[in-house]
């Protein structure tokens, strides 16, 4: 005969899975008004980068890109010493 304790372990696992699915459902309820939240964040960041690029990264708030430009990988070369 099989060990009857295996059924208890499976039951506990099912409870954990159900709890995690419930947590995901509750999170979805709170984020339901903006289902494209991450997409909107990325679009805003891309728009900000493009605005900084058009201004040669000299506008306020563009300092965070200075360490990523002026190298061969980015292909963006700007004189930041002015």
Concise account of the structure shown:
With 82 residues, this protein is mostly helical. The chain contains two helices and no strands.
For the biggest sheet, the summary is: none
| Tally of helical segments | 2
Overall structural domain count: 2
Give start-end ranges of low-pLDDT stretches.
none
Structural category is mainly alpha
State the order of secondary-structure elements, H for helix, E for strand: HH
Distance between the termini: 82 Å
| Helicity range | 40-55%
Radius of gyration: 25 Å
Instruction: Give me the count of strands.
Output: 0
What does this structure look like?
Helix content is 55%, strand content 0%. The protein has 82 residues and is mainly α. The chain folds into 2 domains: 1-35; 36-82, no CATH class.
SSE topology:
Layout: H1 5-31, H2 37-54
Question: What tags apply to this protein structure?
Answer:
82 residues, mainly alpha
């Amino acid at each position: 005969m099989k060990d009857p304790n295996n059924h208890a372990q499976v039951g506990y696992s099912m409870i954990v899975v159900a709890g995690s699915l419930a947590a995901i459902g509750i999170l979805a309820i709170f984020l339901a008004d903006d289902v494209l939240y991450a997409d909107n964040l990325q679009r805003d960041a891309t728009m900000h980068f493009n605005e900084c690029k058009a201004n040669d990264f000299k506008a306020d708030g563009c300092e965070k890109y200075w360490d990523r430009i002026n190298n061969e990988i980015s292909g963006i070369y700007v004189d930041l010493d002015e």
